[in-house]
Fold:
Amino acid sequence: MPSAINNKVLLDQLLSLHPKKIDLSLNRIKILLQKLNNPQDKLKNVINCVGTKGKGSTCAFLKSILEHHGKSVNMYVSPHLQRFNERIILKDKEISDELLNEVLKQTMGTIQKNNLSLTFFEATTSATYLAFQKNPADYTILECGLGGRLDTTAVVNNPIAQIITPISYDHMEFLGDTLEKITAEKCGILKKDTQIIVSKQSSQVLKQIDKEIEKNSSPRFIFGEDFQVSKENGRFIYQDDQSLFDLDMPSLQGDHQLINAGTAIAAAQKILKKLDAKKVNQALKNTKHRARLEKITKGKLLEYINPNNQLYLDGAHNEAAADAVQKFLETIKNKKIYMILGMLNTKDPKVFLKHFSSIITALKTISIPNQDNSQDPKVLAKVANEFGIKANIAKGITEALHEIANEDPNAIIIITGSLYLMGEVLNLN
Structure:
């Protein structure tokens, strides 16, 4: 427990190092990493994953596939839901409090000794590279945090594979106000002499990706051209130029997860050269990724609803993710659907809520606990009303659950709008 407390102090100190929460640049982290003897250059078989949606799920599927083929995998993801340790996965476990304390102290000491100014994400990513260096694995998966060209994961110079998940509008204040600009920023992470795996994209985005990597001689493997997926009679079918896999449905809910799973299979195919269909099948069935259309089947949250209510969590916070949630909810028949929504004030509730105007029965808007930049629930309710959605403001998560359960003991309930909200919800369970 003392290590966990010390880590919170260290993380708070790192958070205060630089006045800007997001300040895209690679110069600062390169200086710090040089002072740390460039641990990122000592990692084996690095795989980058960049995109707008599906990064976390794709990484989780890929990690599971590699592990089921006997490989050890370290993985870096963000943000965390409940505690920082979730971001740094060493083989099959979250980083221990003791090792996290060690690498945070080493990073903080180097920053202070050299009077460096860094963002929280730059400092903690550097600490992650130290942790990976101290605990090497066969493969290292790095989920890109924001953008690509200037993301902290872009400092790795020799990845063996780079995955581009679906790209859409998000973080426009940093990446640009058009899909072309956003795609250019995402593709800025791509290196030569690697394998480029491209997930399903809009024609507009795919055209821009082609333009961005036109002079990159790295082989590319593109969804719809080189590999494809389908759902047939309740089975998941993956096909490329060398394989046809007839698989059980993945553990993660929603048809969009078939695309993520297919992209992960395609990447694993390029990395391992040959896959065992039975091992792939088991890998997809055993993949876990919290708060992605996750059905809550146990825990304290169920005490606030009725036995016939069903509760789902999803961290969707942009239009592309809202579209995926919409498609999932449309598969639910003969049940009323209630939504509990909390969002950051940096997100656009209009582009989010327009997807649910004809699907949900009613909406409860809440503030995200412990978030200073949570959107005002009154604003969310007003936007919902503009789309013809009946909306009421609730005092909090448990109050909203209780109110819905009283209104309809058989309803489907989904809590969504922010990954930060998901962390707070899971803390209650």
About this structure: The first strand starts at residue 46 and ends at 50. Residues 294-427 form a domain with the Protein-Tyrosine Phosphatase; Chain A fold (CATH 3.90.190.20). The chain has two domains: 2-286, 294-427. The chain has 15 helices and 17 strands.
